[in-house]
Amino acid sequence: MDVLYTPRIDDPDGFYAELLDAHEGLSEVQSHALNARLVLLLSNVVGDRDVLREALALAQKAGGPAD
Amino acid sequence: MVDVRYETAFTLYPYKRSMDQDVDVPVRHPVVIVGGGPVGMGMALDLGQKGVPCVVLDDHDGVGVGSRAICFAKRTLEICDRLGAGDPMVDLGVVWNVGKVFREQRQIYDFNLLPEEGHKRPAFINLQQPYFEKFLVERIRVAQAEGAPIDIRGRNAILNIESQADHVVLGVDSPEGAYTIEADYLIACDGARSPVRGMLGHDFTGRVFEDNFLICDVKMKAEFPTERWFWFDPPFNPGQSVLLHKQPDDIWRIDFQLGWDIDREAVVQPEYYLPKVQAMLGEGVEFEPEWVSVYTFQCMSMDQYRYGPVFFAGDSAHQVSPFGARGCNGGMQDVDNLAWKLAAVYHGEADSRLLETYHEERKKGAEENILNSSRTTDFMTPKTPIAKLFRESVLDLVEHTDAMRPLVNSGRLSLPCVYDGSSLNGPDDDRMPVRTRVGATLVDAPINGGWLIDQLGGEFKILAVNCDIQIEGLQVVSLDADPTLCERYLGSVAQAVYLIRPDQIIAARWEKADATDVIAALQVAKGG
């Protein structure tokens, strides 16, 4: 499951800046909606159900208290 | 009288009366530099060693107290090597490779910036700014003894400036009263609050980040490892970040993020910061405060870095927030860029058009530095709830997957700008390595028991790899390629000719070149 555990984003600082720029001026509800659309689009890019399932599990786990 | 604005750590150039103070007609100098900080002194040293007479006016007589800039990047050390001042800096400076990132009380990851093999200088050193400046001045003294025409005037402050088309007239104050001098060129290296910029009425605009940082330099003997430690939201500074790293003489730099609404007077009082430092270092750890200061992050720039005969270099032209080591390091690249151009014009080797490319190239460098600093600051001080949510999510994830590590931004390594698209650039060949493309800084490599970086720079030179070339008036460094040189200079070609500028920037490169090609590129690199 390398895609979940190794860095793959080209120009990470540039990407992060663009991500935040996309949220510039949005209300909280609008930001939630943008994030939801983004999750759906990127899920389609991933495609592989096993990867998506593990990504879901990882995101859930990371939100909890760290061990 | 000349106001004393700050305490000095070392008195290096006490006031002495100049002959310019005893003449009726103001003396005209080729170059006057205002400000005796690292950029001003670096500029004087570079120009003086190139035979350009210059006067440095500093309103103090030595180096100010307080470590201020502490991280000197590899490129700065290479520039100082070219100027003959690198060795004492690297001998005293602290080299570190390991960084640790903490969140609350736990370490979330560590990294090792193991430098690439085959470079004379490390990626960076930590050294207090007063030492850096002192070593530059000591090198100036050596250069002066060898005949370099550098005149440092302590406790000489600018009163007024009149900028003409081809020279400036300066009113100068001294402990013995005011006098007037003139200069063909003025270089303002007088810092972020630049009096020269103010007197000439130029704007300084950009972004102020709504945050303040408290810098504490403390002396302690405790056995902390020589590593950079960065905390998000630690118990000793809840909701904010903290950075700890080491300098020479058992001095440790601690940066406490404070937030926006603070009492700037109160936070520099011992009763505020001593308990904070103690809580961070642990009960019972003995330390003494050395220097404390509070500052607001800002990224500012002038529109133009040259107005007629007046150039702006270092913080007077552009200011960046720290945590990226791009302030003083950026300023030293201004020195590197301007000194050879001014020297070439002064000696009649280039048309004054060449001077226009100082703004072109260094504005690009400053914009890159401001972009990187702004991104780091935005990560450390998220400006909206959603930005904070993403930042916290990155930190949540990074404990579970290395994939998120590149997104954690607590400061990026300071690298020199590549002058892609510069009007001084000559022919390139894309079969050769990207890192040594035209506009990039020379990449060091070990050669014959020494270093490539020491063989090139100072003047235009040729680097010939696996071939030979003779060009009248140009020194040629001819080398047989070992695997390192192949990887850094040849790529998929078997031989190469590189034209290297005096500031060690690659001006042109070819697989095969004859004298006509090189001379044409040389002309372009000198401004046409």
CATH class of the domain at 8-91 and 122-204 and 300-368 in chain B: Alpha Beta
Order of helices and strands of chain A: HHHH
Quaternary structure annotation: heterodimer
Rg over C-alpha atoms of chain A, rounded to the nearest angstrom: 14 Å
Terminal Cα span of chain B: 46 Å
Q: What is the share of helical residues of chain A?
A: over 70%
**Largest sheet report of chain B:** 8 strands, mixed
Shape summary of chain B: globular
Topology-level CATH name of the domain at 8-91 and 122-204 and 300-368 in chain B: FAD/NAD(P)-binding domain
Note the gap between the termini of chain A: 22 Å
- Main interface pair? A-B, 25 and 24 residues
Number of helices of chain A: 4
Please report the total strand number of chain B as a whole number: 26
CATH superfamily of the domain at 8-91 and 122-204 and 300-368 in chain B: FAD/NAD(P)-binding domain
Radius of gyration of chain B: 24 Å
**What class, by secondary structure content of chain B?**
alpha+beta
Main sheet specs of chain A: none
Q: Classify the helix fraction of chain B into a percent range.
A: 25-40%
Question: Which features characterize this protein?
Answer:
heterodimer, A: 67 residues, mainly alpha, 75% helix, globular, B: 528 residues, alpha+beta, FAD/NAD(P)-binding domain, Glutaredoxin, 8-stranded mixed β-sheet
Give your account of this protein's structure:
The complex is a heterodimer of chains A (67) and B (528). Chain A is mainly alpha-helical and 67 residues long. In chain A, 75% of the residues lie in helices and 0% in strands. The longest helix of chain A has 19 residues, at 28-46. By secondary structure, chain B is of the alpha+beta class. Among the domains of chain B are: 8-91 and 122-204 and 300-368, FAD/NAD(P)-binding domain (3-Layer(bba) Sandwich), CATH 3.50.50; 434-525, 3-Layer(aba) Sandwich (Glutaredoxin). Chain B is 27% helix and 28% strand. Chain B has helices at 38-49, 74-83, 86-92, 129-145, 195-200, 270-281, 328-346, 356-380, 385-398, 483-490, 515-525; strands at residues 8-11, 27-34, 54-57, 62-64, 71-73, 98-103, 106-112, 124-126, 150-153, 157-163, 168-173, 179-188, 205-219, 228-232, 241-247, 251-259, 288-301, 306-307, 310-312, 318-319, 446-447, 450-451, 461-465, 475-479, 496-500, 506-510. In chain B, strands 2, 3, 9, 10, 11, 12, 18 and 19 form an eight-stranded mixed sheet that branches. An eight-stranded mixed sheet of chain B has the order 7-6-14-15-16-13-17-20, sandwiched between helices. In chain B, helix 1 (38-49) links the parallel strand 2 (27-34) and strand 3 (54-57). The longest helix of chain B is centred in the last third of the chain and has 25 residues, at 356-380. Classes of the chains: A mainly alpha (67), B alpha+beta (528). The A-B interface holds A 3-9, 12-13, 15-17, 19-20, 23-24, 26, 28, 31, 58-59, 61-63, 66 and B 106, 372, 375, 378-379, 384-387, 390, 393, 396-397, 399-407, 409, 412.
